[in-house]
């Protein structure tokens, strides 16, 4: 099959003093490595790997221009020449690979998670416990000077430019929006005053760094909060930023406190490029569009239809450092696609852990997790082609081992074959496409439809045996659990068993939420990814851009489910509290809007033809339902390992087969990858 050429994506971009080799900008993504001096060698390796992969221009994670601008205590900053030295490690590593890199200057403003926070006005953000100090005029001048000093030091450190973070509700954005700027001096009041801060920062930065230095300005084109900018104001700001000396304008979508998903997996691909498109023609400098662009064909189409001059991809470059090179070499089908789960990147950042990637555990671990050619090729049997087994088999084979992969089912993927059927999780198919291609490329001997036994394995001439057989749904001991009106999530999601109009779900973990989402849609068949217009209507985004902040007057419109769905758990805490930090709120909102009833503190008494009998704090209750679906967690399926041991063979056990508690694909793939790297 001939692969597309992506000629728009791969076209060079002339910035006047510098030509970028293609239109891919690696967007700023905080990894956590920026925050500790001793992690800079690791950070340098991380960026070098992306530069080797051919990305046109890299932007670092946010670096604070002063202590007040820290996102959290002791976050990365660039304020003196001692700190310049560590940044040189990064710029040298990137330039050594022929890449280009800008440093993002991020002042957190009232989003700062520490008591030194400052802002235009003394207004606490809904997502931070700290109330910022309102700046005096002198204080404002000091913040501007800090930005300029930071840019000058960035140049000294060898960066090709800086990105001035003016969006997402951080410090600069807080000056621009009336919502957060209540000042009555030169820096507040009318819009011209409120944009004085970003314009001054860009103007004075340009003065300080000279003409041959990139200044990207990240401009909030859609605030998605009440009291945000109007479209006319945004155009005015863009023109002023251009006049002040910016080289490129990048698109910012949504403040962090906005309650509209902007990058999670249920957001359609390139869903916000129409916003950047509206600014085309209003300024002459290149525009970058962003958000949920994870595929070269999508990126190329965005550029072909003239929505922007460049595309920003942050997480997709975490998922695959070689994204651009593979696209350029006609190997787009080999790209490890970001599925926008946020589980190992953004969720980690919010949990104060180093960001990595669910589908690529090497991200941020480049120097320590290496897939080197095997010194002594071995014969390896991997049992189970779920995420753990697939990662192990393909990486081991890629290193030169002879790998046989046994899978009982007729297709690879394990539980991902259920996940991908959940509306909004269609991206999970891409991981299976990626692994499928890796199986071919690395010549893994794949045996589908083969539930292999211990005796067969022991009889085979394998040097190593890996058991990655996954899990079994937990069996519950509730009276009536074997009745025909009781199903498991596997029956519903994999075997397509039909479910009545009234249903109770036992268990409100990730899978309970996913089954509720699946059943809450009108069709039980997979519905396919959402269309941008439908998504915007569902979440109340005003595509006409007539209202401030880009929010419709009536808010989001979602059809209630025709089904009556109860989502139940025994714990007294609110259901869904343990879902992902950055996505849990979306799942909770989505189900509430569809009319799913969530009950906590439930005791399951019995199931009979009339439904599910429960007791809650309010007393006994009958949920009159047609079906009960059990989503109550899993147990490891590791009998094979024990049987092998009985035959005198030790096996490596990974993924759900090793431990089902708190199992997710992130752990499964990580365990598979690390074991494969160790052979
Ligand atoms: P599995 O995926 O269970 O794979 C085990 C494989 O082994 C299966 O294919 C099985 O057929 C095969 N097998 C078993 N016995 C044998 C044998 N004797 N011989 C040959 N083959 C055998 N995780 C996330 O991180 N994020 C999510 O958003 C997410 N969503 C999910 C949504 C749903 C609906 C479900 C069901 C799961 C979801 N998960 C999610 C969980 C994730 O899919 C699992 O954690 C992951 O699949 C575990 O990987 P594994 O390889 O250990 O096991
Ligand atoms: P889970 O998150 O552990 O949830 C299990 C649910 O079953 C809980 O609500 C639990 O709540 C209930 N439960 C446990 N034991 C029970 C029992 N004996 N009787 C009745 N109820 C019981 O597991 P899961 O939902 O099956 O998900 C499996 C894994 O897949 C999870 O670790 C998750 O990380 C991953 N996953 C992730 C996502 C995602 O979006 N990130 C989505 C799907 C799955 P009570 O004990 O309070 O009743
Ligand atoms: Fe993308 Fe998920 Fe990897 Fe983050 S963890 S980069 S969202 S695939």
Report on the structure:
The structure is a single chain. By secondary structure, this protein is an alpha/beta fold. The protein contains 22 helices and 27 strands. It has an eight-stranded parallel β-barrel, surrounded by seven helices. Helix 13 packs parallel to helix 15. The longest helix is centred in the N-terminal third of the chain and has 20 residues. The mean pLDDT is 96. NADP nicotinamide-adenine-dinucleotide phosphate binds next to helix 18.
Keywords:
679 residues, alpha/beta, eight-stranded parallel barrel, 22 helices, 31% helix, globular, binds flavin-adenine dinucleotide, binds iron/sulfur cluster
Which structural class should the secondary elements be placed in? alpha/beta
Give the names of the bound compounds: flavin-adenine dinucleotide, NADP nicotinamide-adenine-dinucleotide phosphate, iron/sulfur cluster
Distance between the termini: 34 Å
State the helicity in percent bands: 25-40%
Average residue-wise pLDDT: 96
Note the quaternary state here. single chain
Principal-axis shape equals globular
Contiguous uncertain segments of 5+ residues: none
């Amino acid at each position: 099959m001939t692969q597309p050429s992506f000629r728009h994506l791969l076209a060079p971009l002339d910035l006047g003093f510098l030509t970028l080799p293609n239109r891919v900008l690696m967007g700023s993504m905080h990894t956590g490595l920026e925050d500790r001096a001793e992690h800079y060698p690791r950070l340098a390796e991380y960026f070098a790997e992306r530069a080797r992969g051919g990305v046109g221009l890299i932007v670092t994670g946010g670096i604070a221009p002063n202590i007040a601008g820290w996102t959290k205590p002791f976050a990365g900053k660039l304020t003196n020449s001692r700190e310049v030295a560590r940044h040189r490690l990064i710029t040298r590593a990137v330039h050594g690979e022929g890449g280009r890199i800008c440093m993002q200057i991020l002042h957190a403003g009232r989003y700062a998670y520490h008591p030194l926070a400052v802002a235009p006005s003394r207004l606490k953000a809904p997502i931070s416990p700290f109330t910022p100090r309102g700046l005096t005029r002198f204080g404002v001048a000091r913040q501007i000077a800090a930005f300029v000093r930071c840019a000058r030091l960035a140049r000294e450190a060898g960066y090709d430019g800086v990105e001035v973070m003016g969006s997402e509700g951080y410090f600069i954005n807080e000056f621009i929006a009336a919502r957060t700027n209540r000042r009555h001096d030169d820096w507040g009041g009318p819009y011209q005053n409120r944009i004085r801060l970003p314009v001054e920062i860009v103007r004075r930065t340009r003065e300080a760094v000279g003409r041959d230095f990139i200044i990207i300005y990240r401009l909030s084109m859609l605030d998605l909060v009440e009291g945000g900018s109007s479209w006319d104001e945004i155009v005015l700001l863009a023109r002023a930023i251009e006049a002040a000396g910016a080289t490129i304008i990048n698109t910012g979508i949504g403040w962090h406190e906005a309650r509209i998903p902007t990058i999670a997996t249920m957001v359609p691909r390139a869903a916000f490029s129409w916003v950047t498109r509206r600014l085309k023609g209003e300024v002459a400098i290149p525009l970058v569009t962003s958000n949920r662009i994870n595929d070269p064909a999508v990126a190329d189409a965005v550029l072909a239809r003239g929505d922007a001059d460049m595309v920003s991809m942050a997480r997709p470059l975490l998922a695959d450092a070689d994204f651009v090179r593979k696209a350029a070499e006609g190997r787009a089908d080999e790209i490890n696609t970001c599925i926008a789960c946020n589980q190992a990147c953004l969720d980690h950042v919010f949990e104060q852990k180093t960001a990595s990637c669910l589908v690529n555990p090497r991200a941020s671990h480049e120097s320590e997790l290496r897939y080197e050619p095997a010194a002594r090729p071995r014969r390896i049997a991997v049992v189970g082609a779920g995420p753990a087994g697939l990662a192990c088999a393909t990486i081991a084979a890629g290193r030169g081992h002879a790998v046989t992969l046994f899978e009982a089912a007729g297709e690879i993927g394990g539980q991902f074959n259920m996940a991908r059927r959940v509306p909004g999780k269609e991206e999970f198919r891409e991981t299976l496409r990626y692994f499928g291609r890796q199986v071919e490329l690395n010549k893994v001997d794949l045996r589908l439809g083969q539930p292999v036994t211990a005796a067969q394995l022991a009889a085979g001439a394998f040097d190593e045996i890996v058991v990655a057989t996954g899990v079994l749904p937990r069996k519950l001991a509730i009276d009536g659990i074997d009745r025909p009106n009781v199903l498991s999530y596997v029956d519903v999601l994999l075997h397509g068993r039909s479910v009545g109009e009234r249903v109770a779900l036992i268990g409100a973990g990730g899978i309970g939420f996913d089954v509720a989402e699946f059943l809450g849609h009108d069709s039980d068949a997979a519905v396919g990814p959402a269309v941008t217009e439908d998504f915007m209507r569902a979440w109340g985004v005003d595509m006409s851009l007539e209202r401030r902040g880009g929010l419709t007057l009536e808010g989001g419109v979602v059809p209630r489910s025709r089904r009556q769905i109860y989502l139940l758990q025994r714990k007294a805490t609110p259901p869904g509290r343990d879902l992902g930090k950055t996505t849990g709120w979306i799942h909770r909102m989505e189900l509430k809007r569809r009319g799913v009833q969530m009950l906590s503190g439930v005791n399951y008494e019995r199931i009979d033809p009339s439904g599910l009998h429960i007791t809650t704090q309010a007393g006994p209750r009958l949920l009159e339902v047609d079906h009960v679906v059990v989503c109550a967690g899993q147990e490891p399926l590791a009998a094979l390992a024990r049987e092998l041991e009985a035959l005198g063979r030790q096996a490596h056990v990974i993924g759900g087969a090793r431990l089902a508690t708190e199992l997710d694909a992130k752990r499964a793939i990580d365990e598979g990858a690390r074991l494969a790297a160790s052979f």
